[in-house]
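Continuing the batch. This is chain 6 of the set; chains 1 through 5 are on the previous pages. Same settings as before, nothing changed between runs. Recording input and output for traceability.
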Amino acid sequence: MVDQWIRPIPTTFRRSAFPRRRPHSGCVPDDGPARQVSVFALAARRGWADSRDLAVEAGAALIDDYWAADGQPGWVFSLDPSGTIADGRRDLYAHAFALFALGGLLKLDPGNAGYLHAVGVTTRFLDEHFADVQCGGYWDALPRPDALRRQNPHMHLLEAWLELFEATENPQSLERADDLVALATSHFIDTGSGALREFYRDDWSVHPSLGHGSVEPGHQMEWAWLLRRYQSLGGAIDDLPVAALIAAAVITGIDQTTGRVIDGTGEDGAANIHSSRSWPYCESIKALSLESAAATDDHGDLIDLLWDRLLRLYCRPELRGGWIDRLDQNDDPISTTMPASTLYHLMHALSEWKQAAPRPS
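Output for chain 6:
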């Protein structure tokens, strides 16, 4: 089933380059094109599609269109369909994905001076404008949209530093990853319960209060995979946070009989968002595949359940390489768009699964 879904991917690439949503419905935030660059680069490296030129072309467009588009340093947040700046704020999430895309491009073309320059100026901008020197981490956006801080952009920034370390072997990337892992293990993750809290106040205290934070099983799995990847690259972390995250996500977020993944719970593990998006299946497959490959635990049956639901309900054959974003609690589609960002989750899940635990498709 997996190979049947991947067969139309070259057509999907042509259709998805480069708007963030299909059908195109307005502004294009820079994390959409950046994720697509990473997908094109990944598919080229894996031999799944002849997409190297597409990755390079999309990467050049990303840099030209979004970096300092208003004459000031930083990646602008979004453009309108004509290419005019729609939202000039600087967003941490978007900067993280720009760095992640550059890491993917550097894996295709190691030492490329243009990509390395873009990494350097982005890193410098984060250090000078986003870094919180008092409490650690980074601000979500400049100007700030609200009084909250979020774990999510920090998670993707960690992913970017790991991608860049793999691409360049620059120890500074791993050192930056060290800081984010320390932030996660000291504030984001409760290693006793496995809860990963989403929202915080300025001092990294849980919002709205300790014990009442929001938890997403998909992000628990995503952090587990990133921490294990960090560990494999030489990062100093023990197994406890990974084990706690996976155990909590499996117990509270995934139906062991059907493989259905819910979107949200409270810190106590009680389900409170009963819809089911496609991307948490991808992140669960990545994390569980890596654990199974490392002989930490055998999750093969659950991985099969997750793939079955993902391909049968979300990546339906009639969509010809497309996908559904979200189902309601009765498994009826409720999303009205096909986010291009989902392709990033799907393709990276496929890559991890094939590398970690190859099996007949």
